[in-house]
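Summary for the steering committee. The consortium agreed at its last meeting that each partner would contribute one worked example illustrating the joint modelling workflow. Our contribution is presented below. We chose a case with several input lines so that the handling of multiple components could be demonstrated. No manual editing was applied between input and output; the record is shown as generated.
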Amino acid sequence: MDTPGSLSTALRRGTLEFCVLALMEQGEQYGVELVRRLGAERTLTTSEGTLYPLLARLRRAGWVETTWRESPNGPPRRYYALTQHGHQALRHFREEWTAFRDTVDRIVGTRAA
Amino acid sequence: MNTYDDLVNDYLRAVEQALAGVPANRRAELLADLSEHIAAKRAELSPDQETEVEVRSILELLGDPEEVAAEAMVDAEPPLPASPPILIEPKKRSAALIWVAVTIAAVATMCVLAGLLGLMFFSVSSGGTPEATVPTSSDSVAPTPSPPPVPTPS
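What follows is the complete predicted structure of the assembly.
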C-alpha cells in the first residue's frame, strides 16, 4: 500500500479474472484476441503477458475450457469458452460485486449521483 | 523464421529464468502460451513485411518478463480457488434436499405399513367380519404408534 501501483494491483486481484470470464460469456473467444482486448484496458492490466498465467489459472479451476482450431493463415488458434462452473462463478461474482461496490461507494462517498 | 527469432528466444529465455521456483509443468505451460501468442501475432504480419520494430512491439505488449513471471508465481503458492466453495454449495443444497425428501418418503412409507399391519392384526385377532373392521378401524389402531389417518384403500 506504499506505492501508487500497489493499490491498483490490489484492486485488480480478485476482479480481473471475472472480467475475463465476462468477455467469454457470449461465446468462445480466440485467446490472442481476448488478450489483446484486455491488454488494452490499462486500468485492468499491466501487460498482455500477465494475462496468460491468469488464463492458465482459469483453466485449472475448470472455469474455462479451450479448443484448438485450424487457422486459414498461421498456426492453429486456441479458443476459450466458459464451462458450467465458469458461468456459475460469474453469476456469483455479480451478486457479490454489486453488494461490495454499493457498500464501498456508500462509505467512501463515491456513490454516483 | 528469420533473424527476429533471436529476439523472441531472448524474451522467452528471460521469462524462463524469472520463473525459477515455479513448478516445471507450470513453467512449460506459460512458455508455451507465450510462444503461441508470439507466433500467432507474427503470422498476422505478412512475412516480407515483418520488421524488427513490429516483433519488438509484440514483445513489448507482452510486457516485462519479470512481471509476467511474477504473475505466474502468485498462484504457484496456493492452488487458487480450484474448488471454490461457492460452486459446490448449490449442488450440496440440492443433494441435501433430495436426502431429506428420501428420508421423509421412507418414514412415511414405514408408518403406512405399520398402520396397515396393525389394522390387519387387529381385524384378524378380533375375528371381526370385514364389515366390522371398517367402523372400528379409526379408534382401534391406537395401540400401535400409528400414523395420522391415512386413507387406506379397500
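Chain B has six helices and no strands. Residues 3-75 of chain B form one domain.
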